[in-house]
Amino acid sequence: MIEQEWLECADPTPMLEFLRGKASERKLRLFACACCRRIWRLLSDEGSHKAVEAVEADADRKVLDTDPFRLALKAVADTTVELADAAGTIIVTRPGVARNTRGAQQAVLGCSLIDSWEAAFHAADRVRAVKGNIALETVPENLLEERRAYYNGKADAPVNLEQIEAIYESGTATEGRYQSDLVRDIFGNPFRPLTVNSAWLMPTVVSLATAIYDDRAFDRLPILADALEDAGCTNADILNHCRQPGDHVRGCWVLTMILDKPALP
Predict the structure, then answer these.
(1) What would the pLDDT profile of 17-51 be if each residue is shown by its tens digit?
(2) How many Cα atoms within 13 Å fall on the side-chain side of residue 203?
């Protein structure tokens, strides 16, 4: 992958492949959690929310009273998930519309897998599948039944399968574009690594960055850009990232630099 491909990529999978062996465990886990928060409303049980929050806290090395992996297992105990624990992988089947909640819980389980790269990959994959199934909610139920029967090997392919799959793929592609933006928000531009100038770390800058991170008040990042400028920062990449439209999440590369969040071993 070259820099232009990284900047324009609309699929997180090749981006994650490019980061394999290069990215910190912390950032990979926070990306997985950010994906899960994209389907937060489908995680109706408190256990799933706590599982994601536990993985986030563990990524930032906050003190926990529980193992986030076991908490995630408990949160999805009522779903049918085949888990290859020793291999650190999760085996799932393509869910139907009626299984969106189950797919969301599989994403939670994915974000807590032992291998951090697998966690990022599987959480993102499950969330894209859920978004594809949400797009299918516009399709009449009888057509979806025919589609499910086909994928279960119980019927021939329905005549309109291509159109139905196009709807599914549009949902997954839209989510893929969003997840690609999440990758860039968390990992920045690996082709142009930056470091923070210690002279910029004025008390106002650090306290503001801390509040933004702890409170998830990412709408205040433009204010942080102003504070950085006042402290002498002229780096366009840093300032533009804080001021650009779009969502930011835990793990944002600018906040990571300022707060010196550790890269996990």
Answers:
(1) 999 988 888 899 999 999 989 988 877 667 778 77
(2) 0
- Token pair in block for residue 24: 């910190």
Angstrom distance (rounded) from CA 144 to CA 139: 7
- How many domains does the chain fold into? 2
C-alpha 143/C-alpha 231 separation (Å) is 60
DSSP string, 98-116: GGHHHHHHHHHHHHT-SSH
Q: Count the residues in the chain.
A: 265
Specify the pTM: 0.81
Residue 219: pLDDT above 50? Answer: yes
CA distance 111 to 34: 9
User: Would you say residue 28 lies in a domain?
Assistant: yes
> Is the per-residue pLDDT at 118 higher than 90?
no
For residue 77, the model assigns a pLDDT of 44
Q: Could you give the residue ranges of the DSSP H alpha helices within the chain?
A: 3-8, 12-19, 25-37, 46-59, 68-75, 100-111, 116-135, 141-151, 161-187, 203-215, 221-230, 236-243, 253-259
82: three-class secondary structure by DSSP: strand
Residue where one domain finishes, among candidates 135, 160, 187: 187
Of the three residues 187, 207, 230, the one that is the final residue of a domain is 187
Contact (CB, 8 A) for 135 and 175: no
What's the chain's Rg over C-alpha atoms? 20
For residue range 69-112, list pLDDT tens digits in order: 555 555 544 443 443 333 333 333 333 333 456 666 677 777 77
Range of the domain at 75: 3-187
Residue 215 pLDDT: 93
121 vs 200: CA distance, rounded Å: 35
